[in-house]
Amino acid sequence: MSVSNHPTKTPSSGHTPIRRRHRSDLFQQALRLPIVIWQGLFFIAPLCFLVAMSFFIVRNYRMTEAFEMKNWFKMLSRDYFWDSYGLTIGLATLATLVVTTVAFPAAYTLAFRVSEATRRWAIFLLIIPFFTSYLVRIFSWYVILAESGVINAMLDYIELGPYVMLNTKFGTIIGYMTLTLPLVIILQTFSLANIDRRLVEAAHNLGCRPWRTIIRVVLPLAKTGFIIAAVFCFILSFGDFVSPYYLGGSKPPTLPILIVDTVKSGQQWPRAAVVAVVMMVTLFIVAFGGIAAAYRRRTA
Amino acid sequence: MKSDRVLKWFLYGYLALVLIFIFAPIIFSVIFSFNSDRFPTIPLGSFTLKWYETIWQDPDVWEAARTSLIVSFSVATIATLLGFATAYTDYRYRFKLKPLYLALILLPPTIPLIIMALAMLAWFAKIGLAGKVASIIIAHSVLTAPFAMAIIRLRLSQMDATLEAAAWNLGADQWRALRRVIVPFCRPAIVSSFCLTAAVSFDEFAIAWFISGLNKTIPVIILEIVTGNIDPQVNAIGSFVFLTSITLVVIAQVVLMTRDKKEKVNHG
Protein backbone atom coordinates (compact mmCIF):
# COMPACT_ATOMS: atom_id res chain seq x y z
CA MET A 1 0.00 0.00 0.00
CA SER A 2 0.95 3.59 -0.37
CA VAL A 3 2.19 4.08 3.19
CA SER A 4 5.42 2.18 2.78
CA ASN A 5 7.61 5.11 1.74
CA HIS A 6 6.45 7.72 4.21
CA PRO A 7 9.20 9.33 6.30
CA THR A 8 9.12 8.09 9.87
CA LYS A 9 8.25 10.95 12.18
CA THR A 10 7.47 9.29 15.47
CA PRO A 11 9.17 6.32 17.05
CA SER A 12 6.99 3.28 16.72
CA SER A 13 6.20 2.46 20.30
CA GLY A 14 2.43 2.05 20.42
CA HIS A 15 -0.63 2.53 18.28
CA THR A 16 -1.77 5.83 19.71
CA PRO A 17 0.85 7.87 21.51
CA ILE A 18 -0.55 9.85 24.42
CA ARG A 19 0.21 13.29 23.06
CA ARG A 20 -2.07 12.56 20.17
CA ARG A 21 -4.99 11.93 22.47
CA HIS A 22 -6.65 15.30 21.99
CA ARG A 23 -6.51 15.26 18.21
CA SER A 24 -7.61 11.68 18.06
CA ASP A 25 -10.76 12.60 19.94
CA LEU A 26 -11.54 15.18 17.29
CA PHE A 27 -10.93 12.54 14.65
CA GLN A 28 -13.18 10.05 16.40
CA GLN A 29 -16.01 12.52 16.86
CA ALA A 30 -15.74 13.80 13.30
CA LEU A 31 -16.45 10.30 12.06
CA ARG A 32 -18.93 9.29 14.69
CA LEU A 33 -21.18 12.31 15.09
CA PRO A 34 -22.38 13.22 11.56
CA ILE A 35 -24.72 10.27 11.32
CA VAL A 36 -26.07 10.84 14.83
CA ILE A 37 -26.93 14.46 14.00
CA TRP A 38 -28.28 13.57 10.56
CA GLN A 39 -30.50 10.69 11.66
CA GLY A 40 -31.52 12.63 14.76
CA LEU A 41 -32.71 15.60 12.74
CA PHE A 42 -34.20 13.77 9.80
CA PHE A 43 -35.20 10.34 11.07
CA ILE A 44 -35.95 10.41 14.81
CA ALA A 45 -37.38 13.94 14.81
CA PRO A 46 -39.86 13.31 11.96
CA LEU A 47 -41.06 10.09 13.62
CA CYS A 48 -41.52 11.83 16.98
CA PHE A 49 -43.30 14.67 15.25
CA LEU A 50 -45.56 12.12 13.56
CA VAL A 51 -46.62 10.75 16.94
CA ALA A 52 -47.18 14.29 18.26
CA MET A 53 -49.15 15.18 15.15
CA SER A 54 -51.69 12.47 15.85
CA PHE A 55 -52.87 14.69 18.74
CA PHE A 56 -53.09 17.90 16.70
CA ILE A 57 -56.40 19.26 15.50
CA VAL A 58 -57.53 20.62 12.16
CA ARG A 59 -59.59 23.81 12.28
CA ASN A 60 -60.80 25.60 9.17
CA TYR A 61 -58.58 23.40 7.01
CA ARG A 62 -55.53 24.40 9.00
CA MET A 63 -53.58 22.15 11.30
CA THR A 64 -53.09 23.57 14.80
CA GLU A 65 -50.75 22.17 17.38
CA ALA A 66 -52.70 20.82 20.31
CA PHE A 67 -52.97 17.83 22.57
CA GLU A 68 -56.35 16.28 22.02
CA MET A 69 -57.49 12.70 21.69
CA LYS A 70 -60.10 13.60 19.09
CA ASN A 71 -58.35 12.01 16.10
CA TRP A 72 -57.76 8.83 18.02
CA PHE A 73 -61.39 8.52 19.08
CA LYS A 74 -62.58 9.38 15.61
CA MET A 75 -60.41 6.86 13.80
CA LEU A 76 -60.58 4.00 16.29
CA SER A 77 -64.36 4.16 16.57
CA ARG A 78 -64.90 3.76 12.84
CA ASP A 79 -65.73 0.33 11.46
CA TYR A 80 -63.94 1.03 8.19
CA PHE A 81 -60.70 1.55 10.08
CA TRP A 82 -60.92 -1.89 11.70
CA ASP A 83 -61.99 -3.45 8.41
CA SER A 84 -58.86 -2.01 6.82
CA TYR A 85 -56.76 -3.12 9.75
CA GLY A 86 -58.00 -6.70 9.56
CA LEU A 87 -57.59 -6.79 5.80
CA THR A 88 -54.04 -5.43 5.91
CA ILE A 89 -52.94 -7.90 8.58
CA GLY A 90 -54.66 -10.74 6.76
CA LEU A 91 -53.11 -9.93 3.39
CA ALA A 92 -49.64 -9.41 4.85
CA THR A 93 -49.86 -12.71 6.77
CA LEU A 94 -51.07 -14.55 3.67
CA ALA A 95 -48.25 -13.02 1.63
CA THR A 96 -45.71 -14.05 4.26
CA LEU A 97 -46.93 -17.65 4.24
CA VAL A 98 -47.07 -17.85 0.45
CA VAL A 99 -43.70 -16.20 -0.11
CA THR A 100 -41.96 -18.28 2.57
CA THR A 101 -43.33 -21.47 1.02
CA VAL A 102 -42.65 -20.49 -2.59
CA ALA A 103 -39.14 -19.29 -1.77
CA PHE A 104 -38.05 -22.40 0.12
CA PRO A 105 -37.52 -24.87 -2.78
CA ALA A 106 -35.65 -22.18 -4.71
CA ALA A 107 -33.45 -21.32 -1.73
CA TYR A 108 -32.89 -25.03 -1.03
CA THR A 109 -31.78 -25.58 -4.63
CA LEU A 110 -29.43 -22.60 -4.50
CA ALA A 111 -27.96 -23.60 -1.17
CA PHE A 112 -27.48 -27.36 -1.72
CA ARG A 113 -27.87 -28.32 -5.36
CA VAL A 114 -25.83 -25.88 -7.45
CA SER A 115 -22.17 -24.92 -7.72
CA GLU A 116 -20.69 -21.92 -5.95
CA ALA A 117 -20.50 -20.04 -9.27
CA THR A 118 -24.14 -20.69 -10.17
CA ARG A 119 -25.21 -19.58 -6.72
CA ARG A 120 -23.27 -16.35 -7.13
CA TRP A 121 -24.96 -15.69 -10.44
CA ALA A 122 -28.41 -16.46 -9.10
CA ILE A 123 -27.92 -14.13 -6.13
CA PHE A 124 -26.66 -11.51 -8.57
CA LEU A 125 -29.87 -11.88 -10.60
CA LEU A 126 -32.01 -11.79 -7.47
CA ILE A 127 -30.44 -8.54 -6.29
CA ILE A 128 -31.26 -6.72 -9.53
CA PRO A 129 -35.05 -6.42 -9.06
CA PHE A 130 -34.52 -5.10 -5.55
CA PHE A 131 -33.03 -1.98 -7.09
CA THR A 132 -35.40 -1.56 -10.04
CA SER A 133 -38.61 0.40 -10.12
CA TYR A 134 -41.27 -1.48 -8.20
CA LEU A 135 -43.90 0.87 -9.57
CA VAL A 136 -43.19 0.01 -13.20
CA ARG A 137 -43.11 -3.69 -12.40
CA ILE A 138 -46.55 -3.43 -10.83
CA PHE A 139 -47.87 -1.53 -13.83
CA SER A 140 -46.46 -4.32 -15.98
CA TRP A 141 -48.33 -6.92 -13.91
CA TYR A 142 -51.45 -4.83 -14.32
CA VAL A 143 -51.20 -5.23 -18.08
CA ILE A 144 -50.20 -8.91 -17.88
CA LEU A 145 -53.04 -9.88 -15.52
CA ALA A 146 -55.78 -7.81 -17.18
CA GLU A 147 -58.88 -9.49 -18.53
CA SER A 148 -57.58 -9.22 -22.09
CA GLY A 149 -53.95 -9.32 -20.93
CA VAL A 150 -51.11 -11.70 -21.70
CA ILE A 151 -52.10 -14.52 -19.37
CA ASN A 152 -55.73 -14.63 -20.40
CA ALA A 153 -54.70 -14.40 -24.07
CA MET A 154 -52.46 -17.45 -23.59
CA LEU A 155 -55.16 -19.31 -21.69
CA ASP A 156 -57.52 -18.53 -24.54
CA TYR A 157 -55.40 -20.68 -26.90
CA ILE A 158 -56.16 -23.70 -24.74
CA GLU A 159 -59.75 -22.53 -24.43
CA LEU A 160 -59.65 -21.52 -20.81
CA GLY A 161 -60.64 -18.39 -19.04
CA PRO A 162 -60.82 -15.49 -19.08
CA TYR A 163 -60.16 -15.28 -15.39
CA VAL A 164 -60.55 -12.11 -13.40
CA MET A 165 -57.22 -11.54 -11.65
CA LEU A 166 -57.14 -7.79 -11.25
CA ASN A 167 -58.92 -6.17 -8.32
CA THR A 168 -58.75 -9.41 -6.36
CA LYS A 169 -56.69 -10.62 -3.43
CA PHE A 170 -54.82 -12.81 -5.90
CA GLY A 171 -53.64 -9.68 -7.70
CA THR A 172 -52.51 -8.10 -4.44
CA ILE A 173 -50.54 -11.19 -3.46
CA ILE A 174 -48.83 -11.28 -6.88
CA GLY A 175 -47.80 -7.68 -6.24
CA TYR A 176 -46.52 -8.44 -2.75
CA MET A 177 -44.55 -11.37 -4.15
CA THR A 178 -42.96 -9.08 -6.72
CA LEU A 179 -41.83 -6.90 -3.87
CA THR A 180 -40.63 -9.53 -1.41
CA LEU A 181 -39.81 -12.83 -3.12
CA PRO A 182 -36.24 -11.98 -4.25
CA LEU A 183 -35.27 -10.72 -0.80
CA VAL A 184 -36.77 -13.73 0.98
CA ILE A 185 -35.02 -16.19 -1.37
CA ILE A 186 -31.69 -14.44 -0.76
CA LEU A 187 -32.07 -14.48 3.04
CA GLN A 188 -33.22 -18.09 3.07
CA THR A 189 -30.36 -19.14 0.80
CA PHE A 190 -27.80 -17.53 3.08
CA SER A 191 -29.20 -19.16 6.19
CA LEU A 192 -29.35 -22.57 4.48
CA ALA A 193 -25.85 -22.22 3.07
CA ASN A 194 -24.50 -21.53 6.56
CA ILE A 195 -25.74 -24.82 7.93
CA ASP A 196 -23.01 -27.26 8.91
CA ARG A 197 -23.14 -29.82 6.10
CA ARG A 198 -21.81 -32.57 8.35
CA LEU A 199 -25.03 -32.49 10.35
CA VAL A 200 -27.09 -33.05 7.22
CA GLU A 201 -24.77 -35.84 6.09
CA ALA A 202 -24.93 -37.40 9.53
CA ALA A 203 -28.71 -37.52 9.29
CA HIS A 204 -28.41 -39.15 5.87
CA ASN A 205 -25.89 -41.70 7.09
CA LEU A 206 -28.12 -42.58 10.01
CA GLY A 207 -30.80 -43.45 7.50
CA CYS A 208 -32.97 -40.40 7.79
CA ARG A 209 -35.05 -39.94 4.64
CA PRO A 210 -34.64 -36.70 2.64
CA TRP A 211 -38.00 -35.16 3.60
CA ARG A 212 -37.50 -36.01 7.23
CA THR A 213 -33.99 -34.55 7.09
CA ILE A 214 -35.38 -31.29 5.78
CA ILE A 215 -38.04 -31.07 8.47
CA ARG A 216 -36.05 -32.35 11.43
CA VAL A 217 -32.53 -31.13 10.66
CA VAL A 218 -32.34 -28.47 7.94
CA LEU A 219 -35.28 -26.27 8.89
CA PRO A 220 -34.57 -26.10 12.64
CA LEU A 221 -30.94 -25.16 11.90
CA ALA A 222 -32.00 -22.42 9.49
CA LYS A 223 -34.83 -21.18 11.69
CA THR A 224 -33.37 -17.79 12.61
CA GLY A 225 -32.76 -16.71 9.04
CA PHE A 226 -36.16 -17.96 7.92
CA ILE A 227 -38.02 -16.04 10.61
CA ILE A 228 -36.09 -12.86 9.86
CA ALA A 229 -36.90 -13.26 6.16
CA ALA A 230 -40.57 -13.75 7.03
CA VAL A 231 -40.57 -10.67 9.27
CA PHE A 232 -39.13 -8.59 6.43
CA CYS A 233 -41.74 -9.99 4.09
CA PHE A 234 -44.50 -9.05 6.53
CA ILE A 235 -43.17 -5.53 7.08
CA LEU A 236 -42.80 -4.84 3.36
CA SER A 237 -46.25 -6.19 2.48
CA PHE A 238 -47.92 -4.48 5.43
CA GLY A 239 -46.55 -1.09 4.41
CA ASP A 240 -47.06 -1.27 0.66
CA PHE A 241 -49.80 0.80 -0.96
CA VAL A 242 -49.06 0.14 -4.61
CA SER A 243 -50.06 -3.52 -4.97
CA PRO A 244 -53.35 -3.38 -3.06
CA TYR A 245 -54.24 -0.18 -4.90
CA TYR A 246 -53.39 -1.04 -8.51
CA LEU A 247 -53.72 -4.83 -8.46
CA GLY A 248 -56.10 -5.33 -5.54
CA GLY A 249 -58.60 -2.61 -6.41
CA SER A 250 -58.45 -1.05 -2.93
CA LYS A 251 -61.97 -2.03 -1.92
CA PRO A 252 -61.77 -1.96 1.03
CA PRO A 253 -58.53 0.04 1.27
CA THR A 254 -55.57 -1.26 3.24
CA LEU A 255 -54.02 0.93 5.93
CA PRO A 256 -51.31 2.40 3.64
CA ILE A 257 -54.00 3.34 1.10
CA LEU A 258 -55.97 4.91 3.95
CA ILE A 259 -52.95 7.08 4.73
CA VAL A 260 -52.54 8.11 1.08
CA ASP A 261 -56.24 8.93 0.71
CA THR A 262 -56.38 10.87 3.96
CA VAL A 263 -53.34 12.95 3.07
CA LYS A 264 -54.01 13.49 -0.62
CA SER A 265 -57.72 14.21 -0.48
CA GLY A 266 -57.77 16.64 2.39
CA GLN A 267 -55.82 18.31 5.12
CA GLN A 268 -56.42 15.52 7.60
CA TRP A 269 -52.76 14.82 8.33
CA PRO A 270 -53.42 14.12 12.03
CA ARG A 271 -55.83 11.30 11.20
CA ALA A 272 -53.30 9.85 8.78
CA ALA A 273 -50.80 10.08 11.64
CA VAL A 274 -53.10 7.98 13.82
CA VAL A 275 -53.14 5.26 11.15
CA ALA A 276 -49.36 5.48 10.83
CA VAL A 277 -48.81 5.15 14.58
CA VAL A 278 -51.13 2.13 14.75
CA MET A 279 -49.16 0.57 11.90
CA MET A 280 -45.85 1.23 13.62
CA VAL A 281 -47.02 -0.30 16.90
CA THR A 282 -48.27 -3.36 15.03
CA LEU A 283 -45.00 -3.78 13.17
CA PHE A 284 -43.07 -3.28 16.38
CA ILE A 285 -44.96 -6.14 18.00
CA VAL A 286 -44.56 -8.41 14.97
CA ALA A 287 -40.85 -7.65 14.62
CA PHE A 288 -40.13 -8.23 18.30
CA GLY A 289 -42.26 -11.35 18.40
CA GLY A 290 -40.41 -12.62 15.35
CA ILE A 291 -36.97 -11.85 16.71
CA ALA A 292 -37.82 -13.40 20.07
CA ALA A 293 -39.00 -16.54 18.28
CA ALA A 294 -35.94 -16.54 16.05
CA TYR A 295 -33.44 -16.46 18.89
CA ARG A 296 -35.37 -18.55 21.40
CA ARG A 297 -33.34 -21.58 22.32
CA ARG A 298 -34.96 -24.80 21.48
CA THR A 299 -36.34 -26.69 24.42
CA ALA A 300 -36.18 -30.32 23.51
CA MET B 1 -30.42 -42.53 -7.51
CA LYS B 2 -32.81 -42.14 -10.41
CA SER B 3 -35.36 -40.42 -8.22
CA ASP B 4 -32.60 -38.10 -7.10
CA ARG B 5 -31.98 -37.05 -10.69
CA VAL B 6 -35.69 -36.43 -11.22
CA LEU B 7 -35.75 -34.34 -8.06
CA LYS B 8 -32.71 -32.41 -9.25
CA TRP B 9 -34.31 -31.47 -12.57
CA PHE B 10 -37.57 -30.67 -10.83
CA LEU B 11 -35.73 -28.25 -8.54
CA TYR B 12 -33.85 -26.65 -11.46
CA GLY B 13 -37.12 -26.19 -13.31
CA TYR B 14 -38.69 -24.68 -10.22
CA LEU B 15 -35.82 -22.25 -9.82
CA ALA B 16 -36.15 -21.25 -13.47
CA LEU B 17 -39.89 -20.63 -13.00
CA VAL B 18 -39.26 -18.44 -9.97
CA LEU B 19 -36.72 -16.39 -11.90
CA ILE B 20 -39.17 -16.06 -14.79
CA PHE B 21 -41.81 -14.81 -12.35
CA ILE B 22 -39.39 -12.25 -10.98
CA PHE B 23 -38.19 -11.00 -14.35
CA ALA B 24 -41.47 -11.27 -16.30
CA PRO B 25 -42.68 -7.77 -15.42
CA ILE B 26 -39.34 -6.23 -16.36
CA ILE B 27 -39.14 -8.07 -19.68
CA PHE B 28 -42.77 -7.44 -20.64
CA SER B 29 -42.44 -3.77 -19.82
CA VAL B 30 -39.55 -3.47 -22.27
CA ILE B 31 -41.38 -5.48 -24.97
CA PHE B 32 -44.56 -3.45 -24.60
CA SER B 33 -42.67 -0.20 -24.85
CA PHE B 34 -42.06 -1.04 -28.54
CA ASN B 35 -45.58 -2.30 -29.15
CA SER B 36 -48.10 -0.18 -31.01
CA ASP B 37 -51.30 -1.26 -29.18
CA ARG B 38 -52.71 1.07 -26.63
CA PHE B 39 -53.65 -1.91 -24.50
CA PRO B 40 -50.88 -4.43 -25.14
CA THR B 41 -51.54 -8.16 -25.15
CA ILE B 42 -50.63 -11.30 -27.10
CA PRO B 43 -50.38 -11.47 -30.12
CA LEU B 44 -48.26 -8.33 -30.22
CA GLY B 45 -49.14 -5.40 -32.44
CA SER B 46 -46.59 -3.83 -34.73
CA PHE B 47 -43.24 -2.39 -33.79
CA THR B 48 -43.26 1.29 -32.93
CA LEU B 49 -41.15 3.97 -31.36
CA LYS B 50 -44.04 6.36 -30.80
CA TRP B 51 -44.12 5.97 -27.02
CA TYR B 52 -40.46 6.91 -26.87
CA GLU B 53 -41.13 9.87 -29.16
CA THR B 54 -43.95 11.00 -26.89
CA ILE B 55 -41.81 11.04 -23.78
CA TRP B 56 -38.86 12.49 -25.68
CA GLN B 57 -41.00 15.49 -26.61
CA ASP B 58 -42.50 15.91 -23.15
CA PRO B 59 -40.84 18.82 -21.29
CA ASP B 60 -42.21 17.51 -17.96
CA VAL B 61 -40.30 14.27 -18.41
CA TRP B 62 -37.09 16.17 -19.15
CA GLU B 63 -37.56 18.36 -16.13
CA ALA B 64 -38.22 15.30 -13.97
CA ALA B 65 -35.19 13.48 -15.37
CA ARG B 66 -33.03 16.47 -14.45
CA THR B 67 -34.42 16.54 -10.90
CA SER B 68 -34.00 12.78 -10.56
CA LEU B 69 -30.37 12.95 -11.67
CA ILE B 70 -29.55 15.78 -9.28
CA VAL B 71 -31.31 14.01 -6.44
CA SER B 72 -29.77 10.58 -6.93
CA PHE B 73 -26.27 11.97 -7.44
CA SER B 74 -26.48 14.09 -4.28
CA VAL B 75 -28.06 11.26 -2.30
CA ALA B 76 -25.35 8.84 -3.37
CA THR B 77 -22.65 11.29 -2.28
CA ILE B 78 -24.18 12.10 1.11
CA ALA B 79 -25.20 8.53 1.90
CA THR B 80 -21.80 7.12 0.95
CA LEU B 81 -19.95 9.71 3.07
CA LEU B 82 -22.21 9.07 6.05
CA GLY B 83 -22.06 5.33 5.48
CA PHE B 84 -18.28 5.36 5.31
CA ALA B 85 -17.84 7.39 8.50
CA THR B 86 -20.28 5.13 10.32
CA ALA B 87 -18.80 1.89 9.04
CA TYR B 88 -15.33 3.05 10.08
CA THR B 89 -16.58 4.05 13.53
CA ASP B 90 -18.17 0.65 13.98
CA TYR B 91 -15.03 -1.09 12.68
CA ARG B 92 -12.59 0.75 14.90
CA TYR B 93 -14.23 1.97 18.10
CA ARG B 94 -15.98 0.46 21.04
CA PHE B 95 -18.08 2.75 23.15
CA LYS B 96 -21.04 2.81 25.44
CA LEU B 97 -24.43 2.84 23.72
CA LYS B 98 -22.94 1.36 20.58
CA PRO B 99 -25.94 -0.95 20.02
CA LEU B 100 -28.20 2.12 20.19
CA TYR B 101 -25.88 3.93 17.80
CA LEU B 102 -26.07 1.07 15.29
CA ALA B 103 -29.83 0.75 15.69
CA LEU B 104 -30.23 4.45 14.94
CA ILE B 105 -28.43 3.97 11.66
CA LEU B 106 -29.79 0.62 10.55
CA LEU B 107 -33.44 1.20 11.45
CA PRO B 108 -34.75 3.41 8.60
CA PRO B 109 -35.24 0.62 6.00
CA THR B 110 -37.49 -1.28 8.41
CA ILE B 111 -40.00 1.58 8.66
CA PRO B 112 -42.59 1.37 5.86
CA LEU B 113 -41.99 4.02 3.21
CA ILE B 114 -45.50 5.35 3.47
CA ILE B 115 -44.99 6.14 7.17
CA MET B 116 -41.62 7.76 6.49
CA ALA B 117 -43.29 9.74 3.72
CA LEU B 118 -45.99 11.10 6.04
CA ALA B 119 -43.50 11.84 8.82
CA MET B 120 -41.10 13.60 6.43
CA LEU B 121 -43.94 15.58 4.83
CA ALA B 122 -45.10 16.90 8.19
CA TRP B 123 -41.60 17.51 9.53
CA PHE B 124 -40.36 19.38 6.45
CA ALA B 125 -43.50 21.52 6.48
CA LYS B 126 -42.78 22.28 10.13
CA ILE B 127 -39.14 23.30 9.61
CA GLY B 128 -39.81 25.19 6.39
CA LEU B 129 -38.25 22.81 3.87
CA ALA B 130 -41.49 21.66 2.23
CA GLY B 131 -41.52 21.01 -1.49
CA LYS B 132 -37.82 21.62 -2.06
CA VAL B 133 -35.42 19.40 -3.97
CA ALA B 134 -33.21 19.49 -0.87
CA SER B 135 -35.93 17.80 1.16
CA ILE B 136 -36.06 14.83 -1.25
CA ILE B 137 -32.27 14.57 -1.07
CA ILE B 138 -32.30 14.61 2.74
CA ALA B 139 -35.10 12.05 3.01
CA HIS B 140 -33.47 9.67 0.54
CA SER B 141 -30.09 9.96 2.27
CA VAL B 142 -31.66 8.89 5.56
CA LEU B 143 -33.14 5.91 3.77
CA THR B 144 -30.02 4.81 1.88
CA ALA B 145 -27.20 5.54 4.36
CA PRO B 146 -27.72 2.11 6.00
CA PHE B 147 -27.07 0.35 2.67
CA ALA B 148 -23.86 2.32 2.20
CA MET B 149 -22.82 1.55 5.76
CA ALA B 150 -23.49 -2.19 5.34
CA ILE B 151 -21.54 -2.50 2.08
CA ILE B 152 -18.51 -0.58 3.36
CA ARG B 153 -18.58 -2.32 6.75
CA LEU B 154 -18.45 -5.69 5.01
CA ARG B 155 -15.38 -4.57 3.10
CA LEU B 156 -13.68 -3.26 6.25
CA SER B 157 -14.16 -6.60 7.94
CA GLN B 158 -11.96 -8.14 5.24
CA MET B 159 -9.15 -5.74 6.01
CA ASP B 160 -5.98 -6.68 7.81
CA ALA B 161 -6.18 -4.59 11.00
CA THR B 162 -2.42 -4.19 11.21
CA LEU B 163 -2.27 -2.16 7.98
CA GLU B 164 -3.64 0.97 9.59
CA ALA B 165 -1.54 0.55 12.72
CA ALA B 166 1.50 0.18 10.49
CA ALA B 167 0.68 3.49 8.83
CA TRP B 168 0.45 5.19 12.23
CA ASN B 169 3.75 3.74 13.31
CA LEU B 170 5.33 4.99 10.13
CA GLY B 171 4.26 8.47 11.17
CA ALA B 172 1.02 9.03 9.34
CA ASP B 173 -1.51 10.87 11.47
CA GLN B 174 -5.00 9.41 11.68
CA TRP B 175 -6.44 11.48 8.86
CA ARG B 176 -3.60 10.60 6.56
CA ALA B 177 -3.85 6.92 7.42
CA LEU B 178 -7.56 7.06 6.77
CA ARG B 179 -7.03 8.72 3.39
CA ARG B 180 -4.08 6.68 2.21
CA VAL B 181 -4.83 3.24 3.67
CA ILE B 182 -8.49 2.81 4.58
CA VAL B 183 -10.08 4.69 1.68
CA PRO B 184 -8.03 2.96 -1.05
CA PHE B 185 -8.81 -0.42 0.50
CA CYS B 186 -12.53 0.41 0.58
CA ARG B 187 -12.64 1.89 -2.92
CA PRO B 188 -14.61 -0.96 -4.55
CA ALA B 189 -17.16 -0.85 -1.73
CA ILE B 190 -17.36 2.93 -1.99
CA VAL B 191 -17.99 2.79 -5.74
CA SER B 192 -20.57 0.08 -5.32
CA SER B 193 -22.32 1.84 -2.45
CA PHE B 194 -22.42 5.01 -4.55
CA CYS B 195 -24.12 3.16 -7.40
CA LEU B 196 -26.59 1.25 -5.23
CA THR B 197 -27.72 4.26 -3.19
CA ALA B 198 -28.12 6.22 -6.44
CA ALA B 199 -30.25 3.39 -7.82
CA VAL B 200 -32.48 3.24 -4.73
CA SER B 201 -32.99 6.99 -4.79
CA PHE B 202 -33.66 6.97 -8.53
CA ASP B 203 -36.52 4.48 -8.07
CA GLU B 204 -38.07 5.69 -4.82
CA PHE B 205 -41.58 7.05 -5.33
CA ALA B 206 -43.55 7.08 -2.05
CA ILE B 207 -41.53 9.68 -0.16
CA ALA B 208 -40.77 11.65 -3.32
CA TRP B 209 -44.47 11.73 -4.17
CA PHE B 210 -45.44 13.06 -0.75
CA ILE B 211 -42.76 15.70 -0.31
CA SER B 212 -41.63 16.74 -3.78
CA GLY B 213 -44.28 19.39 -4.41
CA LEU B 214 -43.59 20.82 -7.86
CA ASN B 215 -40.13 19.29 -8.13
CA LYS B 216 -41.30 15.95 -9.47
CA THR B 217 -38.87 13.10 -9.97
CA ILE B 218 -39.27 10.45 -12.68
CA PRO B 219 -41.03 7.90 -10.41
CA VAL B 220 -43.52 10.59 -9.36
CA ILE B 221 -44.31 11.31 -13.01
CA ILE B 222 -44.81 7.57 -13.56
CA LEU B 223 -47.12 7.36 -10.55
CA GLU B 224 -49.22 10.23 -11.89
CA ILE B 225 -49.51 8.71 -15.36
CA VAL B 226 -50.41 5.29 -13.92
CA THR B 227 -53.09 6.80 -11.70
CA GLY B 228 -54.72 8.36 -14.78
CA ASN B 229 -55.24 5.31 -16.99
CA ILE B 230 -53.51 2.72 -19.11
CA ASP B 231 -50.83 4.53 -21.03
CA PRO B 232 -47.94 2.68 -22.69
CA GLN B 233 -45.79 5.77 -22.18
CA VAL B 234 -45.17 4.26 -18.76
CA ASN B 235 -43.45 1.29 -20.40
CA ALA B 236 -41.16 3.63 -22.31
CA ILE B 237 -40.22 5.66 -19.23
CA GLY B 238 -40.08 2.42 -17.26
CA SER B 239 -37.62 0.83 -19.68
CA PHE B 240 -35.43 3.88 -19.38
CA VAL B 241 -35.63 3.68 -15.58
CA PHE B 242 -34.87 -0.07 -15.60
CA LEU B 243 -31.90 0.48 -17.86
CA THR B 244 -30.51 3.16 -15.56
CA SER B 245 -30.90 1.24 -12.33
CA ILE B 246 -29.81 -2.12 -13.76
CA THR B 247 -26.68 -0.45 -15.14
CA LEU B 248 -25.93 1.00 -11.71
CA VAL B 249 -26.50 -2.33 -9.95
CA VAL B 250 -24.40 -4.25 -12.46
CA ILE B 251 -21.53 -1.76 -12.13
CA ALA B 252 -21.78 -2.03 -8.34
CA GLN B 253 -21.63 -5.81 -8.35
CA VAL B 254 -18.97 -6.17 -11.01
CA VAL B 255 -16.69 -3.74 -9.15
CA LEU B 256 -17.10 -5.77 -5.96
CA MET B 257 -16.69 -9.15 -7.61
CA THR B 258 -13.65 -8.41 -9.78
CA ARG B 259 -11.76 -6.94 -6.85
CA ASP B 260 -12.47 -10.08 -4.86
CA LYS B 261 -11.05 -12.27 -7.59
CA LYS B 262 -7.96 -10.18 -8.08
CA GLU B 263 -7.16 -10.34 -4.40
CA LYS B 264 -7.65 -14.07 -4.29
CA VAL B 265 -5.18 -14.45 -7.14
CA ASN B 266 -2.67 -12.17 -5.42
CA HIS B 267 -2.88 -14.11 -2.19
CA GLY B 268 -2.75 -17.51 -3.79
Explain what this protein looks like in three dimensions.
By secondary structure, chain A is mainly α. Chain A has one domain: MetI-like (MetI-like fold). Chain A contains 13 helices and 2 strands, in the order αββαααααααααααα. Chain A has a two-stranded antiparallel sheet with strand order 1-2. The longest helix of chain A is centred in the N-terminal third of the chain and has 35 residues, at 79-113. Chain A is globular, with a radius of gyration of 26 Å. Chain A starts with 20 loop residues before the first helix and ends in a 5-residue tail after the last helix. Chain B has 268 residues and is an all-alpha fold. Chain B has one domain: MetI-like fold, CATH 1.10.3720.10. Helices cover 78% and strands 0% of the residues of chain B. Chain B has 11 helices and no strands. Chain B has helices at residues 2-33, 50-56, 59-92, 98-106, 113-126, 133-156, 162-169, 174-203, 206-211, 218-228, 233-267. In chain B, helix 3 (59-92) runs parallel beside helix 6, helix 7 (162-169) packs across helix 8 (174-203) and helix 10 runs antiparallel to helix 11. Chain B is globular, with a radius of gyration of 23 Å. The mean pLDDT of chain B is 89.
